[in-house]
Structures are given as C-alpha cells and as structure tokens.
Specification:
Blueprint lengths: L22 E3 L5 E3 H17 L16 H13 L12 E3 L6 E3 L9 E2 L1 H15 L18 E3 L4 E3 L1 H7 L11 E2 L22 E3 L4 E3 L1 H6 L7 E3 H21 L1 H70 L6 H9 L5 H23 L17 H8 L3 E2 L7 E2 L5 E2 L3 E6 L9 E8 L10 E5 L3 E4 L7 E10 L2 E2 L6 E4 L21 E3 L5 E4 L3 H6 L12 E4 L8 E8 L5 E8 L3 H6 L17 H10 L4 E6 L2 E3 L14 E3 L4 E6 L4 E6 L4 E7 L6 E8 L2 E5 L5 H9 L1
Parallel strand pairs: 12-20
Antiparallel strand pairs: 1-2, 1-5, 3-4, 6-7, 6-8, 9-10, 9-11, 13-15, 14-15, 15-18, 16-17, 16-19, 19-20, 19-21, 22-23, 23-34, 24-33, 25-30, 25-34, 26-27, 26-33, 27-28, 28-29, 30-31, 31-32
Helix pairs in contact: 8-9
Amino acid sequence: KIAIKGIERELICPACKELFTHPLILPCQHNICHKCVKEILFAFEDSFADGGSESSNQSSPRIRITASSMDRIDRINRSGRKRNSLTPRSTLFPCPSCQRDIDLGERGINGLFRNFTLETIVERYRQAARAAIAIMCDFCKPPPQESTKSCMDCSASYCNECFKIHHPWGTVKAQHEYVGPTTNFRPKILMCPEHEMERVNMYCEICRRPVCHLCKLGGGHANHRVTTMSTAYKTLKEKLSKDIEYLISKESQVKAHITQLDLLLKETEGNSERAKQEASQSFEKLYCVLEEKKSAALRAIETSKNKRLEKLQTQVEEYQGLLENNGLVGYAQEVLKETDPSCFVQTAKQLHVRIQKATESLKSFRPAAETTFEDFVVDTAKQEDILGDLSFHSNGLEIPEINEEQSRMYNKALISWECSEKTDSADIYVLEYHKLNKEEESVTWQKTEVCGKSKVLSDLDDDSSYAFRVRAYKGSICSPWSQEVIMRTPPAPVFSFLFDDKCGYNNEHLQLNPRRTSVESRAGFPLLLGSERLQVGCFTTLDYIIGDTGIAKGKHFWAFNVEAYSYLVKVGVVPSSKIQKLFHNTPDVISPRYEQDSGHDSGSEDTFFDSSQPCTLVTLGMKKFFIPATPAAPKDPASRILPLPSCLGVCLDCDRGRVGFYDAGRMKCLYECEVDCSGLMYPAFALMGGAAVHLEEAVTAEDREYHNDI
C-alpha cells in the first residue's frame, strides 16, 4: 500500500509524456521508456542516413523531435558515431530530462539497467487508477475468467482452475512463486547487462550503478571505488529515509511556501493584465499620433489638389476662348464688325492687348499647375527603423559587450561578445553591423541572429571599416544595444601559405611544428660550437625561411605573431631570382668593423651592407618594431623605434610594386616601401638567437563553436 495520489508527475516519461513502460536508467540517473530510447536512436539513425531531412524526423508517432533537438542530432552525428570504423563506437543519446548528450557506451541500450522499482510503482498506480478493472486469466477458454493469482516465474496470470492445471502438486512448477493478480513481472535476481550470466553484487560509487564482480575485475569499473550491494542498500536507504523524514517534518513550511506561491500566481495574473493594458495604451497613443499625422497629410494633399485643379480649369477656359466663335476670339470677331472708327479704337486697344497675351501663351505653352505630388511623399524610413526596434526593455537583462581581444579580422570576421555575469540568461543575440561610409547619409544595418556568443561573417569588403553592435533577447524582452565597436578589414585578400621545409630550411638552427605554421630558432649547442673559434666581435648569421607559395600578381595580405622573447626577427618578401643568394651568400666571418686594426668606417660599410640585401625586410626584436633608415624616414633614431604589435601583417601589391607592414590588430600601416616584383614573390622570414614566429590562422566556423564553448 502506498499513497498514489499526487505522484503522477514522477511516473511520466519525459519523451512520450505517458506512464513509464519498462523504464531504463540512463547514466545521468534519469529514467526513460525502453521503447522511447529505441525510437529516439532510430530517429538519429534516420537523420544520419538522410542528412537530417524533415521527412525522417517524424518516424515515431509517440515522439515528436523539435528543431532544437535536430540541431543536437546533427552535432551527435558529426562527433558521436562514425560508421565503418575499426575502433569501438560509442552511442551518444540526448537525455530528454537534462538535455545533455549521454554516452551509452559500446553496448548502447543493452548496457542500461531496467528500473524495476519504478516499474512496480507504476503498476500500483495503474491498479489504483483502474480500481475495479480486473486482470483476466491468460489461459481460460473464452470467455476468460478473472485471475486470482499471478506466477512470477511464468510471468502469467491464472484463475484458480487454470493455476491447478498448470502447477500440479508434486512438480517443479508447484514450487513457483505466486502473488496477487498483476501485470508487472520482475526477475527475482538482477543480472548484469554487460555480463548477462552474472548477478550484480556490488555498487560502483563513481558511476552510481550496480555492477558484477567481472565488471570490477576487468571491465569498465576496474579502477573505480565499489562497495557491497548490502552496504550500498543500507547506506542509500538510510539517506533516503532521513531526507524523507526531514521533508515530512517541514510539512508546515512546505504548505506555507505553497500558499505563498498561490498568491504569487494570482499576483502574476494581475500584473500581466496590467502590463497588457499599459502596452495597449502605449500603442493606442502611437495609433493616435499616426492618425493625426495621417489626417494632416491627407488634408494637405487635398488642399493642394483643389488649388491645382482650379488653376488648370481656369487655364482650360482661357484656351477655350481662343477657339473660333467662342470666348475671346468670338468677341474680337464681333468687335471687327464695328464701322465707327472712334468706337472701334476705343474698344480694340484693350482687346488687342488681350489677343497678344493669348498669342504669346500659345507659343510657349506651360500648364498652370504641376500634376505630380512629389513634395508630399512621406519619408518613414527612420520611423520604421525605430518601430522595428520597439520591444520591451528590461533592466534585468544584461547588456552584452563586444570583446575586441577575442574578435578577429582576417580572411573572415570573428565577432565575440560576453556578459559580465557568468550565467547566460539570454535566449538569442542579434548582431548588427554596417560599413562606415562618409558619403552615405543614412545608415543601413545588416542583422543576423546568433544562438551563441560569437559569429563568423564572410561578406565584408576588404580595406573597409565596419561598426558592430549586439543586443540580447529573452522572449519578447531585449536589452539595450551594446556600445558600438569599429574594426577594420585587411587591406587586401588574405594569402594562405605554410613555411617551406625544403628550400634552404636549416633544421639544425630552426624547428618547425608539424603543421608548418610556426618556426622557432634554437640558439643552443650547435651555435656555441660554431662560435668556439671566434674570440672578438662577430655577428651570427641569420637563419632564413620562406613561404611555400609564391605570388605573381595582385594584392595580398598575410599576418603573423612574433613571440615577445624574440631577440631578432626580420620579415618581408624575396623574389624568386634572389632566393639562391639569400641562402648561400650569408657571411660567417669575423666582421672587419669590429677588428681593432681594420680601419674600416662603419658608416660606409652599412651603406654597402644595405645595398647588397637580396630581399626587402624590416627588423623586429626585443618587443620593438624598427623602421628602416631611409631618406624619407625620420632622422632621429628614437622616432624610428615603435612598440611591437601583438600581430603583424604584410601587404604586397605586385601591380604597384609596393610592400607595406601593418599593425594587424588595428590594420594600421607602420611602414611602406617600393619593391621589385618582376618575378614570383615569396614571404620571407629571418631569425637569430631565441625567436619564434607563428602564422595567423584563418578564421573558420570552428572558431565560433570554440568561442561558444568557452
């Protein structure tokens, strides 16, 4: 006997929304019907095979898979299961209760325990619900009789006569266990789902599930902390009983909370009605303003129309008077019949003036009024934008702010934002952006909806500045717009390449990562051995490395990072005709300028050294950017030293024969010079001492998923 009333909520499957049927316990400790697990997994298989088509989403009449669930199915199909794999595959299952992707392991459904306790409670609830509905005998000839007992070993129900026939005295069946009429048949011993011939006799405290001794010896629970089943039973039962007793002892407090919640329900209803009335009043005010503006605009158009029609009608009447025997012409014809000279002259003078005016107007005809109403066009573009942003503003919804450090402008734009609070209360974000153009008077924002906290944009123009802003939405409530952030795109399309590990690559001094996107100079033991014979001033050779792809024409941009600890790095471009000279004409001797008796002038030697360089390079090192000493450069050496940007860029314009060096974070040009682009041009790098260069990686869709995970 149990209290059935009020526990229906605990007996409903989260997938099919019906009473549990053969419930299984998921690794997350939630329950679900055995049939629902199979149908959901079958739906996943269909979506995997059909590419997630909508026709495959409705394969089950019991379970309806929503659009958000299909997004999770696509993610599971991409990462969870791979067919034709030699490695054991694991099955990911989206739990309907906690909305997490649960790993069912290699055995899938077969590795789940059946929750017999919950199944028994559901059966009791069914019996209490159907009350007088009897359980019929499974073996009677029609019409069947009401059963009086059920055999737990045979999993069947019997009336008295059939039970005696199928369980005769003196046979093995006579020893079967029988209970009152029921439809819930559970095994006497709980067997391990992974080792079907073994009964569970231990409890894994890590996985929180019963296990057998084989699971502990060599299975997936070998290194887990386990306890005996009796100990786990006693411990869990004591904890559960204690917690239940505590809740029962707090019954008065629970009832007080329920009373308070009932009041809050009524208060919520009343407040929602008042909010509706206030919203309706606000919109009614807008309607009134619009109606007044509409009436005024229509009245102005009507007044202008009447004035124009009056002028045109008068002009029509004047021109009708120019017809023969009509109006002015007819009157003039009658005046011509006058024979008395004095009377004729008296009348004809004024008439002649009118006839002349009519003749002139006939020669230069122009309507007395305009027919178009272009001056009466109502421009509502700004008002439409304002009304489009009309929504509920709440102080409780936090304003997101664009994180400029995590945002990137490269081959694509990665825009990331964050909220100061750790909890994300927004359902969706709206990112807007527009290109900054001084010639355009009105701004047209482009809008995109984002579920996460970052977005990759690929439709931006090169060498352009864009403004970005973002706002959060939760239902119909939205936050104010974030502060606008202005970012600039690269000056040219991004050029992709890797470091060349063949042409001139010195693997004794330089070390490439496996992806060939980073290079590091190793100033170690080989360098000491090479310098052992040198006693006085010498300069160590630069170790060069180039890109594996050349540029023949067009304008291109690439970016990279130089480690802060780098002593000396040179970056730039080299033509294909001078690559051989770059790698094979590097001096490795004692410099004459440092010998005490050389007599060489260091300034003249610098001039010779600069003119002999095979490639165009700028010098970086010790967290500084050095502008080359050219006639156009500042004479003060201190003004030619700039702080080293966190990310550097190179823009090569083969058509104009120029190369520029940029602060890639702000897309600001630091130095530009002419370069000979007669042949293929290759990105070039030189390192000396401890130094490292990392090529900037292209922005991809995975960057958005990575930032959202963060």
